Amino acid sequence: TFSAAAALTGAALCAQGAATSVPVFYWPVVLTSVASSTVVFLDRLSWAIWLYHLAALLCGINTGLNAWLSLAGPVLEVPLFVLVPPLAWVMFSTGAGAVFAACAADWASDGQLQSETEQLSTEFTGSLRDAQSSNVEDKERIMAEIAASGSEEAVEHAVDVLFRAGMSTSCLRYATLQGSDVRGGGRWSLGFCCSVLLIWVVHPMTHVVLDTSCAGSGRCIPALKVVEGFAWAGIFAWRAQDQRSFMTNSAAKLAVTPYLCIWSLWVARALILGLPMARQHCVPDCIGALVLGPTMLATAVAGISGVASVPVLGPVLVTMVLAGVSVGLAPQSERARARTRSVASELVDGSPASELSDGDSGDER
């Protein structure tokens, strides 16, 4: 969709050979394509694939338009070109197209995971004693061993985490014991990962090359942001599978989304007030490099169990990051709280979160 839109837009403009109509639709196309990027950070929806195609279509049109402007020369006199020249728009729109393609792949994987979960949970009540087995003797022996160990509740809790997250590890189980909802915690988002690299590596690199951010000693700010982006990528590569979902989701929702909102509002303010556009990247970059970037890295280092162990706010933050804002703000049912207390008393018995390895996936079942 992205490639077709970009090619057709570029071909149409080249065939027209004139720029009379470009000023009319340039800014609606650019602003709409930027706004469409927010669909990446919405909670997973069954029809999200159509939003990804629509956003890719808009970004493709934006890419074709700015590619033509890059080749045609100074056709438009736009103040924002001081900050983001057409060639930079081509880079960002192409990167956004890749993000949407990755999100479409995530959407397909989510559908497969949901289908597998439904198949596994068919006729399963949540109790091990109601589980079916092709060999009755095997079931009786397994149930006897579980009963003898006194860990039936813990095993049921592990199975519940498996259904919710797609895997069951010590970190994910600990987070649920703290009251977090870890649904989808076993699968990381390629789209979110690409969006972090786009905004925290590619975007500030253009500021360094074009020198459109802070002046003087502040010129290191966008470079610092690039370093943070590479540091996050290194931590991501080192982390185990059960940590990557939390890493990508937290980085996208706690760093990338706020940065895009701050940048958009700050630039819109300058445009409305008629301020000079030179170095308007500086303030958003400072907030990104000095506040949002460290927050992104701190959550990556702490991991899911470290964040979940923070009193009151930690479990809510983990739930909002993994399961969505609507789930994170919803009240926890009394049944869920009772089960959490029961399993917690049996499993952790006051053990601190530090005793749980953030990268431990060895007990995945």
Automatic annotation (TrEMBL):
Query: Under what name is this protein listed?
Result: Uncharacterized protein
Instruction: Indicate whether Thylakoid appears among the record's keywords.
Output: no
Q: Which segments carry the region annotation Disordered?
A: 340-365
**Gene source species:** Zooxanthella nutricula
Q: Which domain of life is it from?
A: Eukaryota
Instruction: Kindly list the residue ranges recorded as spanning the membrane.
Output: 24-42, 49-69, 89-108, 185-203, 256-275, 287-306, 312-331
Record keywords: Membrane included?
yes
Keywords assigned: Membrane, Transmembrane, Transmembrane helix
